[in-house]
């Protein structure tokens, strides 16, 4: 069990990850960021969902826009207008203490003890290390859901090249990937392999997860002919609990920040000499490219099913 700060742009799959984290990790706090929804809505969603699952941790408001790009219009197709399927009344407001200060202060207060789990755009993390680079060697690990590297045909889900979290703020992602932070990256290469059906969700007997996933499942059925969803963000917690179920490589990684491949994650794959080395001084990061999908899924289902029965 790790002590984690949970950084999220909370939508439907983020909520599944938070439910899993609440049962398997010690959550020091939840930091919110724009992404699936505006940051004010993310604060509201974090408060509402935490209440629904009986989680009592502090919640913080992070960045509201990308570092360099103009803010983008949020899509309501998958997660609904409120990010949680438009099925719950949300009485909370979007005000909260500053997430960047919380990350910096917490890491300094607990050197080598805190794992950052980031399942939205990496703007909060980039801002924290830009403001306080001295925290970089004090972070135990940064585990992110993001990127796509083409394994088994798993490329981008927003463009042919780019995954949503990275595409939303590629400059932040590139700064984080190129930093000395110790990263573990769970890209679409593995998250698209772990699928859960609507029937399996309903069998968990966790009413809030059943409710908020209805629209997501309807969209999936209409678009892909499959009533289910990939456990994208949840795999960050799967890594923390069961790293042996993943196959990894170690390589420096950068992010494309302009042009038609904006947001593409690119890893170094050769040691051949070149005139310009964009990976110079970048540390090798841990990149998950394959997963024992069935064991990961069953561990998740078993954990939440047992919790629901208590």
TrEMBL record:
One GO molecular-function entry: purine nucleosidase activity
**Keyword terms:** Glycosidase, Hydrolase
InterPro entries xrefs:
Inosine/uridine_hydrolase_dom, IUNH, Ribo_hydro-like
Occurrences of domain Inosine/uridine-preferring nucleoside hydrolase (ranges): 4-297
Which Gene Ontology terms of cellular component type are present? Answer: cytosol
Q: Which GO terms describe its biological process?
A: purine nucleoside catabolic process
User: Which PANTHER family does the UniProt record give?
Assistant: INOSINE-URIDINE PREFERRING NUCLEOSIDE HYDROLASE, URIDINE NUCLEOSIDASE
UniProt name for this protein: Putative inosine/uridine-preferring nucleoside hydrolase
Q: What is the lineage of its organism?
A: Bacteria, Pseudomonadati, Pseudomonadota, Gammaproteobacteria, Enterobacterales
């Amino acid at each position: 069990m790790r002590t984690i700060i949970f950084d999220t742009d909370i939508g439907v799959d983020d909520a599944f990850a938070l439910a899993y984290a609440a049962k398997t990790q010690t959550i020091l706090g939840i930091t919110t960021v724009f992404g699936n929804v505006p940051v004010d809505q993310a604060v509201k969603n974090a408060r509402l969902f935490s209440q629904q699952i009986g989680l009592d941790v502090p919640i913080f408001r992070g960045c509201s826009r990308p570092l360099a790009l103009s803010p983008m219009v949020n899509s309501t197709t998958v997660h609904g207008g409120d990010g949680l399927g438009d099925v719950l009344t949300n009485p909370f407001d979007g005000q909260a203490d500053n997430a960047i200060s919380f990350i910096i202060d917490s890491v300094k207060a607990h050197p080598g003890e805190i794992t950052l789990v980031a399942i939205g755009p990496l703007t909060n993390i980039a801002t924290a290390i830009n403001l306080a680079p001295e925290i970089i060697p004090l972070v135990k690990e940064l585990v992110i859901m993001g990127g796509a590297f083409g394994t088994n045909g798993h490329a981008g889900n927003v463009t042919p090249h780019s995954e949503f979290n990275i595409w939303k703020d590629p400059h932040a992602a590139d700064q984080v990937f190129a930093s000395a932070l110790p990263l573990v990256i769970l890209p679409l290469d593995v998250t698209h392999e772990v699928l859960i059906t609507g029937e399996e969700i309903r069998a968990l007997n966790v009413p809030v997860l059943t409710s908020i996933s209805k629209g997501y499942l309807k969209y999936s059925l209409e678009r892909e002919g499959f009533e289910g969803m990939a456990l994208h963000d949840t795999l960050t917690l799967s890594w923390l609990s069961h790293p042996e179920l993943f196959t990894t490589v170690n390589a420096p990684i950068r992010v494309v920040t302009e042009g038609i491949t904006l947001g593409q994650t690119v890893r170094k794959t050769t040691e051949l000499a070149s005139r310009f080395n964009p990976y110079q001084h970048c540390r090798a990061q841990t990149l998950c490219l394959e997963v024992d999908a069935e064991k990961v899924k069953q561990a998740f289902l078993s954990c939440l099913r047992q919790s629901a029965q208590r």
